[in-house]
Design goal:
This protein is of the alpha/beta class. The chain has 10 helices and 8 strands. The protein has one domain: Rossmann fold. The strands form 2 sheets. A 6-stranded parallel beta sheet has the order 2-1-3-4-8-7, with helices on both faces. It has a two-stranded antiparallel sheet with strand order 5-6. Helix 1 crosses helix 10, helix 4 crosses helix 10 and helix 5 packs parallel to helix 6. It is globular.
Length: 342
């Protein structure tokens, strides 16, 4: 069992990061991510979302803080727990919901589903179902950006379990040697599927404690504190953009649901769950905003608007047709057809 205090975190996020001018925008983004994920879960239970899915309820501050700090041309690489990161980069809710429900109007015409969300147009370079597979790809994208002189920064998100995968070590080694503009963000939610990361890893902080092996330093951040995440993200992106090389960030957070929709999460101690729920990133930030002078009415209006957006996305997906069977052979080969072979 790991309580927030065991990791050096306060009982509630402190919200001391520099966010002047972004206060309500960060709240709005987190609300949209939370309400979308909740509705997606309800649709899973109704059998309207096909296949499995992995929610990031409780981890919204990481996606929102980074997305708000990034430039439109920057690139995001995410894991299969990628709904929030996809939406945070500006992909329309209707396209993501359509994809989850297997509709022709989905982001990939209903062919990719929950774990493969991709939108190059929005800098969302994919959600990857194979643990750790995207880290070397992210390094390659960062190398390309440096070679072209585009000033783009690649942000690569991964879970704590990825730090025990070979691709993690290979990617960090190359990124450090090549000094590419990539920010590696470990969303440490303490559990690698059903196993506590602390049970199989000899160091307390699976990313930060290994940084020195690659000649790098790492920043620890309260992943439930959207102000701290935004502030650290803004500074890290600027460092990369100016040629400072890779940056490592370990964000301590907690998923409020199980690993996937079939997981009730009963392996987690009750005291641990309660302590982390008390640090809910959205509820705590709402209280902070009110204490800072914003009104509950303003926050309620933002939530109502987000609810209407989610409702619209669901209805659009419900009324959309399934993909045409002819799409089964598209997006497989260079000419878009399975009939072509190299």
């Amino acid at each position: 069992m790991l309580l927030p205090t065991d990791l050096g975190l306060p009982s509630r996020p402190a919200f001391k990061g520099e966010i002047n001018g972004h206060e309500l925008a960060l709240f709005e983004l987190m609300v949209r991510l939370r309400l979308f994920e909740r509705r997606a879960y309800d649709l899973f239970l109704q059998g309207l979302v096909k296949g499995t899915s992995h929610l990031s309820l409780g981890q919204e501050a990481v996606a929102a803080g980074f997305a708000r700090a990034m430039e439109p041309t920057d690139l995001t690489f995410a894991t299969y727990r990628g709904h929030a990161h996809t939406l945070a980069r500006g992909v329309p809710m209707s396209a993501v919901m359509g994809e989850l429900m297997g509709r022709a109007t989905g982001l990939m015409a209903g062919k990719g589903g929950s774990m493969h969300l991709t939108s190059v147009e929005h800098g969302m370079m994919g959600s990857y179902a194979i643990v750790g597979a995207h880290l070397p790809v992210a390094v390659g994208a960062a190398w390309a950006a440096r070679s072209r002189g585009t000033k783009q920064v690649v942000v690569c998100f991964f879970g704590d379990g990825t730090t025990n995968i070979g691709a993690f070590h290979e990617a960090l080694s190359l990124a450090s040697v090549w000094r590419v503009p990539v920010v590696f963000v470990c969303e440490n939610n303490l559990y690698m599927e059903y196993t506590a990361i602390s049970a199989v890893t000899p160091v307390r902080h699976p990313l930060a404690d290994r940084a020195s092996a690659y000649g790098l330093s790492a920043t620890m951040v309260d992943g439930n504190d959207v102000a701290e995440v935004f502030d650290v993200a803004r500074r890290s992106l600027a460092e990369c953009r100016e040629g400072g090389g890779p940056v490592l960030i370990e964000a301590l957070t907690y998923r409020q649901s199980g690993h996937s929709r079939t997981d009730p999460g009963t392996y987690r101690p009750k005291e641990e769950v309660e302590a982390w729920l008390a640090r809910d990133p959205l509820a705590c930030y709402a209280d902070y905003l009110v204490s800072s002078g914003f009104s509950r009415a303003e926050l309620d209006e933002i939530e109502a608007k987000a609810t209407a957006e989610v409702d619209g996305a669901v209805e659009a997906a419900r009324s959309a047709p399934p993909p045409e069977i002819s799409l089964v052979e598209t997006n497989l080969w260079a000419d878009g057809s399975a009939s072509w072979r190299s």
